[in-house]
Amino acid sequence: MDMRKLLYFQPGSPPQIQQEAFKAAGWEIHVAAEISHAQRLCEKHGFRVGLMGLSPGVEEKLQQGIDKLISPATHIEWVALLSTPQMRNEMVRYLITSYCYDYHTLPIDYPRLLTTMGHAYGMVSMACQQTNQSIEELGPNHMVGVSPAMQQVYRSIRKIASVDMPILITGESGTGKELAALAIHERSVRANGPFMAVNCGALPPELIQSELFGHEKGAFTGAIKQKLGQIELAAGGTIFLDEIGDLPLNLQVNLLRFLQEGTFKRVGGNQEITIDARVMAATHVNLEKAVSEGRFREDLYYRLNVLNLRMPSLAERENDIEVLARYFFKKFSDQTTTRIKGFSQEALRRLHRHAWPGNVRELINRIRRAIVMCEGRLITPIDLGLERRLSNRRTMTLAEARAHAEKETILRTLRQAKGNVSQAAVQLGISRPTLYRLMEKYKISIN
């Protein structure tokens, strides 16, 4: 029988449970007395159920730090263990009602407690199955991931798809912003309409206006016939403007007018054309900073940023790295006659240790490269092109190591604070201006 993993968090006092009773029922117990230790165990083992022992007087200590444990671990159902008199404590009642699936009063009735734990495990399992089903329901976009960060993305996609408003998708390059836009489109009332994607950063400035809005015959040299623009072709559906931050200022005016009034003119034309299309935009740059520097119109920014979806970097999705690697290995190996069976353990370790500056796009490229270059039965770090990365890390200077640790701490704290800079600054023990300065230094955006 496979052992179910259980986190037993007992702050401030020795364990009160008979671990043998849990082991006999198929539970593998991991004990933590401090929130920091419990966090590390959560990251390592992926628990679905946690048992929280509430000793008298410990509630005030928990009140200060429980969000650090509970919020990142949304996939865990907690069961509180406490004495009957503690139920009269208002703070204890708040902890239970706010963070726990159920509670159990002392002395422990093991058959009843084990039944409760089993129900909690079953609820999380069903939620995970629903999440996996949600991934499949996103259609051919192949958005893959079961990490808490991606579960939040799936929930946001379902909410955003149900309303017909402009949306701005932010995130680093290679995080799958266009896939997210297509997933939203396919779940929206416009699913039967077209989905037109334009990369504003890949077109010469002189061609963008014609590409977006179309042109009339004779509008300029080479315009030998009328051409419909991508916005017009998106009628009844969605127009996705990738790298919107690269759109020239003079064209931002035209796009703003379309967002406000739903009308535009083709290049060289005088006729006002009315089109019903949902506008989605994406960027990897900080548009608020671009606005302050005069590179992006403030009114257009607020028109586009009615709804916002942030795509997490692969570094924020550590639990997904191996899932994604195996998924893309299967996808690409099925297209070849390769006899490769999978990844070596060292290759998997290197995948987890790599920083992934190119995010999922980089991972895809490395997997495709490995399938071609591999000469054995298992993919090695050399096949992935990661053998020198480890060497580089060994020669990292002290200053580089400090900078890396500082950046990772800021990123992790901002995630825990859900982008709230003031709250993150308090947790880090620094002022808000100092945190903004560090975010600027490390190019950290909360968009």
Return Rg in Å.
26 Å
Query: What would CATH call the homologous superfamily of the largest domain?
Result: P-loop containing nucleotide triphosphate hydrolases
Using the 3D structure, state the CATH architecture of the largest domain.
3-Layer(aba) Sandwich
CATH class of the largest domain: Alpha Beta
Which strand order does the major sheet show? 2-1-3-4-5
Count of alpha/pi helices: 20
Descriptive labels:
about 15% strand, Rossmann fold, about 450 residues, 5-stranded parallel β-sheet, globular
Structure description:
The strands form 4 sheets. This protein has a 5-stranded parallel β-sheet. A 5-stranded parallel β-sheet has the order 7-8-11-6-12. Helix 6 crosses helix 7. With 447 residues, the chain is an alpha/beta fold. It has 20 helices and 14 strands. It has 4 domains: 126 residues, Response regulator (Rossmann fold, 3-Layer(aba) Sandwich), CATH 3.40.50.2300; 166 residues, Rossmann fold (3-Layer(aba) Sandwich); 80 residues, Orthogonal Bundle (Helicase, Ruva Protein, domain 3), CATH 1.10.8; 44 residues, Arc Repressor Mutant, subunit A (Orthogonal Bundle), CATH 1.10.10. It is 48% helix and 13% strand.
Brief sketch in words of this structure:
The protein is an alpha/beta fold and 447 residues long.
Give the SSE map.
Elements: E1 4-9, H1 19-24, E2 27-32, H2 35-45, E3 49-53, H3 59-70, E4 77-82, H4 90-99, E5 102-105, H5 110-137, H6 148-161, E6 167-170, H7 177-186, E7 195-199, H8 205-213, H9 230-233, E8 238-242, H10 249-261, E9 263-264, E10 273-274, E11 278-283, H11 287-292, H12 298-304, E12 307-310, H13 321-333, E13 342-343, H14 345-353, H15 359-373, E14 378-379, H16 381-384, H17 387-394, H18 398-416, H19 421-428, H20 432-441
Parallel strand pairs: 1-2, 1-3, 3-4, 4-5, 6-11, 6-12, 7-8, 8-11, 13-14
Antiparallel strand pairs: 9-10
Helix pairs in contact: 2-3, 3-4, 6-7, 10-12, 13-15, 18-19, 19-20
